Amino acid sequence: MASFDSRALLSLWLLGAQALANGVVDSSSVDIAATARAFAHEAPAAIGESDRFAPGFQAEADVSGDLGGTAYKLRLFGNWDAQDEERRYADIRQASLHWRRDGLSLGLGVGTFFWGVSETLNIVNVLNQSDLRQAVDGKDKLGQSFASVGLRLGSGELSLYYLPTFREREFPQRPSFGLPVSDSARFETSAKGGDIALRGLFYVGDLEAGLGYFNGIRRAPLLIRDSPVDTELKPFYIETENLLLDALYLVGDTILKLEAKTGRELDQGFFAANLGIEYPVYALPDAVQDLSLIAEYLMDDRDEQAETLGQNDLFVGLKTTFGDIGSSQFRGVISYDFESGANYADLSLKHRLNDWFRIETRALLFLNAGPGDTALYPVRDEDFIELKLHYSF
């Protein structure tokens, strides 16, 4: 199992409590949520019995501060599900130290990184393993061990990362891929860890651009069967080498976005890109603080070996902040596959009740996914609606 054990988490909790007692904490927060997830369909018979309704709870704690000129960050996450044992786990999302002097910085520990600018699928966000136990789209990430060296430039920053360990993807009962996923994975090479990444982030006028390089094990495995009669899928982790680009350009209030990467996998070259636009609309200034229309197109010439839920897809949607001083946020996106006609919708609503409580709900719906869509067809019965009641302090 890739999750961290309870003793490691307890040690970090004690470290955070000691830091708090010693007065070296700049900020801290705890978020506890009661959760309820309801699936639209029964679980596939192949994975066994699983109730369509699953209550549970989540907890997350953040602490950050300074220890003798060295900044530290600690973020712990835990989840408990009444139906799915694989969704009862804890993870260290962040436990890192950062030292900076003049333009040079050093980092060490466990971190969760985000690279990219797209609203839908971030194809250049390659460092962390996806946490499928939260949702099949993989937007939530697991902590990744790292060591980094950074150099601040006049109009940006250059960073080098060494990733000493590799975390396999965890597959819960639900979301399911139609068949059980084996705990025994295959790797293209015997090496597990020691990946290298390089990223430069630059600002020039209204342009923000990131250039990156990654060489190591691809985080998204291929799910294969050794023979047609196998009753389970086996994760196959391949080596990948990527050149990465993400860019954001402002044209007035309109935002143009691009994520692209090229490289080699399984001795073949590939290219993938996500091109998008975000257009702000301010139709009701008294009730709606901001309203933006979203359109993005994703292409990936790896076909069945693509890493995401789409490979020739158009995404359209909107996001808005409304209510009393922005107390509510809504985001809705629907996709359309130009090859298979399949699509899925991702809808979320967040509402702040007061300074301590907020409600969050999300619906992930898979529509018209036929056998011709190799990405969406395996998860066609994993539609769910989730409700969370958060208490933060």
Explain what you see:
The protein is mainly beta. The protein has a single domain (6-16, 31-392), classed as Porin (Beta Barrel), CATH 2.40.160. The protein is built from 1 helix and 21 strands. The protein has an 18-stranded antiparallel β-barrel. Strands 8-12-11 form a 3-stranded mixed β-sheet, with no helix packed on it. A hairpin with a 6-residue loop joins β15 (268-281) and β16. The longest helix has 16 residues, at 6-21. The chain is globular, with a radius of gyration of 21 Å. The mean pLDDT is 90.
Sequence-ordered SSE layout with sheet pairings:
Blueprint: H1 6-21, E1 25-39, E2 53-67, E3 70-81, E4 89-101, E5 104-111, E6 144-153, E7 156-163, E8 186-187, E9 195-204, E10 207-217, E11 222-224, E12 234-237, E13 239-251, E14 254-265, E15 268-281, E16 288-300, E17 312-322, E18 328-337, E19 343-352, E20 357-367, E21 384-392
Parallel strand pairs: 8-12
Antiparallel strand pairs: 1-2, 1-21, 2-3, 3-4, 4-5, 5-6, 6-7, 7-9, 9-10, 10-13, 11-12, 13-14, 14-15, 15-16, 16-17, 17-18, 18-19, 19-20, 20-21
Protein name: Porin domain-containing protein
Signal peptide: 1-21
Keywords: Signal
